[in-house]
Amino acid sequence: MRCRLGDMAASFRKLSHMLINDIPEKKGLSESEASQVFSELTENMCSACGRRELCWEKEYYDTCHSAYNLIQVFSEQGQVERKQVPANFRRRCINIDGFLKETNRVMQMASMNIRWQNRLNENRLAFAGQMGEIAEIMDSLSGELLERKETAKTISETLTHKLENKRLKIKKISVTDEGSHGRRQKIYMLAKMRRGRCMTVRELADTVSEAARRSFIAEKDNPGLVGHKYSVFEFVEDTRYRLIQGIARCPREGEAINGDSYAFIYLDSGQVLMSLSDGMGSGEKAKEESELMINLLEQMVDTGFQRRSALRIINSLMMLHGDSQLFSSMDLSVIDLYSGICEFIKIGASSTFIKRGHQVECVTSGSLPMGVFPEIDCEGFCRNLFDGDIIVMVSDGVVNRFTHGNESIAAFLAEIELANPNTMASEILNEALDRPGDRQQDDMTVLVCTICKKQASVI
Fold first, then answer.
1. Which residues have C-beta within 8 Å of that of residue 307, sequence separation ≥ 6?
2. Which domains are delineated in the chain?
3. Model-level pTM?
């Protein structure tokens, strides 16, 4: 399996390189294309003209130079006017207005072809990016397969030895890693008690935690007791932190639907993706765009895609959509419930605020929304979070209601002393609505989450 994944990754990478090669941005007409435009222009305007002999025999070089000059003027300015025609040609041509009109028409068609060619090249580049991301995912999986197999074998042997010293008889034990890079361990065992008393599944979880030197909890569908017959037990590594979340939303004035979309995605790796997407505009169309982004992201990360790979592929899909107006921001706060580290990834999104007591930090980025360019900036900003820290994410409709934007929001957050995230989200939204100014011009969404440390477990 590992070799097959590696071979498939190499194939996708080769395909990506083939697609990327020779895709320059086309900025103007090539020499052959300019010659073709020249021929079409002169054929349409000069073939039946009574002065053809004068222009194209006696004054051939001056006529050629003048016609090419008009093509060059259009390439630079997008329009040719009468005053830009060389004086000699203007005096000689008996249908100068018609010649100018035809020049603009032919060049507009040529410019449209260039735009379409660039659009096709962008789509090709986007598709190549998808192939490259798939190759990276397969390479990552290939490496993890070998690493996890060797690590799991060592842990299984150690656990078996330690648990059997606790009057347990282990017939089979399996250790697996969930999520990317094996961030969260699961232990499956077929076990029973030796002679003597029974053990509750919670006591067994404590025993497993002590033996593994990590905190494990029993899954809900486990038997309640470890008896004298073999039963299957399942334990998952517990997280150090938990989240309490709150949401407050309001559509644009005059709209029934909020165009922003959000999600709290809990991953098997012990991470939480707190996501907010703001579609272009407001109302139903904006909601469709932002909801599409959130749903795609959720499906891909649930399947096992790395979040940056998922974002790049989603951006490629937006580029391939064919609608040049399909833009959406994507705001991610990725919270690791084991370490407390939070990574912020912003693609055309508003600022995020980290509140610690009366101190507030503002996390910003100047990147453009998704769907604008084939390549997106997925740069992340990492911060260490501690017990009681609060993350506040807002859409730009909220920021725009505050006179000094981020500065005003940070000052307001510094003074809030509310423990409940839902109450805090509502307070922020109400404060934005109460601010003086024009009517509410955009959808407004506030996401708040508090990180809380769990009680110490037996290790």
1. 273, 297, 301, 332, 334, 345
2. 1-143 (no CATH), 166-237 (no CATH), 241-453 (3.60.40.10)
3. 0.67
